[in-house]
Amino acid sequence: MKDCARYAPMLGAREGELDAAERAGLTGHLAGCAACQARLADLSALRGMVGEALGREASRRDFTDFADQVMARVERRRAGAIRSFFRRHRVLAVGTALAPTLAAAALVVYLQLRGGGGPGIEVVSEDYAPMVIDTDEGPLILLGDRDDSEGT
Amino acid sequence: MRRRTIRLGAVAAAIALAIPVEAAPGIPMRIRVIKGSRQGPAAVDPRLADLQPQLSRLAYARWEEAGEQQVDMDFKKPVAVALPGGERLEVELLESRRDTVTIEVRVPAHRSISRLTLSKDKRLVQQVTPEKGGEAFFVTVRPWP
Fold this sequence. Notes:
The complex is a heterodimer. Chain A has helices at 2-7, 20-32, 34-60, 66-88, 90-114; strands at residues 122-125, 128-135, 138-146.
């Protein structure tokens, strides 16, 4: 009984866990102890059942999309991190959203201050062929030649 | 809700800024009728000194002022300008921004219309009568003189 208390815990030891003396002692004890032989038989049966159940469960699972599922979870976690970053930095988020609008507004203001998109001179005459000379001081518009094409 | 309010505000601001400012009537304009002559010694009326850089580009040697009016122009209210030969022209303010105006000059006698934008420091010099005997009349328009 005293020996059972010593060797019974060694029954579940894995390969390499016991040194040579312990292994020899356990073998000697098992040869003469029916109770420990019964324990070892139960343990082996249990291990076999558990291993078999795990194997069955594993083979029932479809692991073909395992990598995709892992990557999807990683992406979700990344997106969540970005969302939580913007939640923590609201001013930055609002600024980012308004940036295109502000840029467009600045462009409009700039064009208005410049005088709307350029000088744009339009001269039409039914009798003459006007000429426009653009100078630094402003435009010079001359009547040009008389357009007699209709009369001749 | 708050985010939508901010977006609507930004869009409204952009639209308001994009609309041309047409609400400031009474733009002061200096409208002068000037005569250019090929004959005689070269001389420029001292009242036309500010136009000298533009006038010097033309082939006329003598320049005199023939008439002047300073008006506060309102939108879409043409100002009539009499020319010495009995003809007349019209100047109309079409649009004004911070420091530019868009005007239209109509000369019914030779059925011509010019439309242009002038900034504060610029002026228009436009020939309004054909040359006769080496002389021609011009109109010059300067906003915010």
